[in-house]
Amino acid sequence: MSGVKGRIHALQGGNYAVATATGPLACRARGLFRSQGRTPLVGDEVVCAPTGPGEGYILELLPRKNALARPPVANVDQLFLLCATTQPRPNLRLLDTLLAVTELSGIAPVVVFTKCDLAPGGDFAAAYRAFDCLCVGKEDEAAVEELHGMLKDKTSVFCGNTGVGKSTLLNKIAPGLALPTGEISEKLGRGRHTTRHVALYPAGGGWVADTPGFGTLEPLEQSRLTKDALAEGFREFAPHAGACRFADCAHMKDKGCAVIAAVEHGKIPSSRWESYCALYKIVKQKNDWEV
């Protein structure tokens, strides 16, 4: 199909900001996508038809290498998963869920513990030694520089529970963004939702997305999280799973489970295995039509 190729850089209220070689286009999507059950996402490569100066329609969605439902972003190279050490209280179950979704989506995860100036992150980080993991404090310029260097030539997404400081950290990495930030509600212990929509911003020689904050386990709705695939979302299991007595070992309480043995011997952090067990019980309850 003829047209102008571009990439969606922002979405708000049904309007898509598409960057093309000839300049930006403000586009609407064809109704055909709705009838096909397809939705253009930020990060999608598309073909557009200009209809006037700076305006057009999205005609075609080009193949994606990956996509996330929440945050709704496509063609992601790496996902920075932010978790505060305090204010709000760390939600490691949410972090582990997002990590599993990221792994099963074929996206490289990076774990970032924030607010380490208020409460140390070393004990938390120890459980994620299998991943690229950083601890960042308010005045930690070295960690910010390290994050900045990881952005070059990549499309990165920053996400995490509400109030962990995504926009604050991005403003440090790329001060020109001037993204809005919010304070923590003392009554609720949660941050205000300062990011209202998903958008890609240039930073560090690549593109980054600041995404709306959230505090629930909505990623469980994604089809990648099934009881058969879940263990593949916990990379610490891989060196041990092949030694289980039974090929279909669920790594819950099975006899001869090499994963459980690795947990008992400190080779797999117990908190990670506990998250796996909690998630397994949830996804096991899914009916076939929900998967």
Q: In words, what does this structure look like?
A:
About 10% of the residues have low confidence. The protein folds into three domains: about 60 residues, Nucleic acid-binding proteins (OB fold (Dihydrolipoamide Acetyltransferase, E2P)), CATH 2.40.50; about 140 residues, P-loop containing nucleotide triphosphate hydrolases (Rossmann fold), CATH 3.40.50; about 60 residues, Ribonucleotide Reductase Protein R1, domain 1. Helix 2 packs across helix 8. With about 290 residues, the protein is α/β, with parallel strands linked by helices. The strands form four sheets. The chain has a six-stranded mixed β-sheet with strand order 10-9-8-11-15-14, sandwiched between helices. It is built from eight helices and 15 strands. A hairpin with a 2-residue loop joins strand 2 and strand 3.
What structural class should be given to the helix and strand makeup?
A: alpha/beta
> Strand-and-helix sequence, N→C?
EEEHEEEEEHEHEHEHEEEEHHH
State the major sheet.
Answer: 6 strands, mixed
Per CATH, what is the topology of the largest domain?
Rossmann fold
Domain count: 3
The CATH architecture designation of the largest domain is 3-Layer(aba) Sandwich
Topology:
Layout: E1 4-12, E2 15-20, E3 23-29, H1 31-35, E4 45-52, E5 55-61, E6 67-68, E7 73-74, E8 78-84, H2 92-104, E9 108-114, H3 122-126, E10 132-135, H4 141-149, E11 155-160, H5 166-173, E12 184-185, E13 190-191, E14 199-203, E15 206-210, H6 238-241, H7 258-264, H8 270-284
Give the gist of this structure.
With 291 residues, the protein is an alpha/beta fold. It has eight helices and 15 strands.
